[in-house]
Structure formats: structure tokens, C-alpha cells
Amino acid sequence: MSSIDLQKWANIATIIGTVIALVGIGVPVMIWRKSHSSKTGTSEEKSSSNKTSEDKLSYEKALAELSKVDADLPHKLRLFINRCKREGFFEDVKKTIMIKAEVPGIPAVNFGTIGIPDGKLDTNYIAESGDKVGNRDIAVKYLQGIANLLEGAIIDSSGKPWTWRVRLHGDLPPLSKLLEKEDEWLELMKETRSAFLNMARLRTQNS
After folding, report:
1. How many structural domains are present in the chain?
2. Which residues touch 205 (CB under 8 Å, ≥6 apart)?
3. Cα end-to-end span (Å), the chain
4. What long-range pairs does 163-166 form, CB within 8 A, spacing at least 24?
5. Strands (E), the chain
6. Residues 108-136: tens digit of each pLDDT
7. Rounded to two decimals, what is the model's pTM?
8. What is the residue range of 36's domain?
9. Which letter does DSSP use for residue 171 in this model?
10. What would the pLDDT profile of 140-176 be if each residue is shown by its tens digit?
11. Exposed, middle or buried: residue 155 (CB in 10 Å: 0-12, 13-18, 19+)?
């Protein structure tokens, strides 16, 4: 099976995981990351399909860059992201690697941005997602949960909500520190996503 075929199956697995999460709490499934209903596809979909190999290479290159910080970090992160994808999360690779989840009615929620090549974790943006879904406390609880996993960490809420993030001794925490407690982190992500989805469901019912 080619690398493109593998990527297609990975995308399908991510979509299925997201749908299962939505249906499990009774949220109507109306939003998809990509449309697969058209045989010909839109120009945007064709462009996305043509970039599959390029995106894959970007992901691999981003992982490789992390080896400059820690030789074991690319492998550990790959395993963690694979676990996240099985739970319905997905990675968004640009100049960084972001771990996100779909929530109806708002842009995908970012649960953490991994800096390339410094390997530090930035947890900004999620407080703004909390505002957009109508409950900032969901995001604050997530940030506090992250801080609790890192001895000496605090929530920096000195700026606008989109800048709120966890800091460790005044800096962004190393991803490697959080991966030492990846089970707890993934569970926290799942609980937070459920809270976002529940809030989205309530908004749908009240609209």
C-alpha cells in the first residue's frame, strides 16, 4: 500500500473517530473536515488531494526537526499523536504541529501547539475557543489541568484570552515533560473535548 493510500486511511480513521465522539453525546453530525460526497470534487478538494504527499513530508520533516532538541522526541510524539488520532483528534501541520479536535459551530479547538524545532508546548488559543463556544471555564480547566501535570507551572492570563497559556518557570514548557504523563494529558484532552461538545449541543438545542 502506498504512502498516499496510508494517508487516506489515516484521514478516514480521524473522521470516524470524530463522528463517534459527536454521536456519543447526541450532537447532530453536520460538520466534516472534508467533503467526500462528490466524485469529481471541488478545486479546493483537488488541491488538498494533490498536496497529500507534500503534507506528509512536512509532518515528517517537522518531526525530524525535533530531534535537534531530543533524539527520542520525534518517535515519542509520533506515538502520542497516533493515540490522539485514534480518539478522534487530528494534527494540523504548518510551521508548527497542532493537535486539534472538531467542535460544531466553532473553528477546530487547538489543544496544544508544538514548536519546531524547539519542542516546546504552547497552549494558547483554547481560552478563545471557550469564549466562542460560550464557556471560557472549560478552557481554563484544561489549562489548569496542564499546569497540574507540570510541577511549578502556572496559567499566564495576563493578556487577551487567545494569549492565555501555561508557563513553566516563565517559559513555555518542554513537550517532553508533558509526554512523561501522556496518559493523563490525553485523558484531560478527551474530557475537555467532551465539555466543548456538550456546550455545542446545548447551544444547538437553544438556538
Report:
1. 1
2. none
3. 46
4. 163/124, 164/124, 164/126, 164/127, 164/139, 164/140, 165/122, 165/123, 165/124, 166/121, 166/123
5. 90-93, 97-103, 106-114, 121-122, 153-156, 165-168
6. 999 999 999 999 999 999 999 999 999 99
7. 0.75
8. 3-206
9. B
10. 999 999 999 999 999 999 999 999 999 999 999 999 9
11. middle
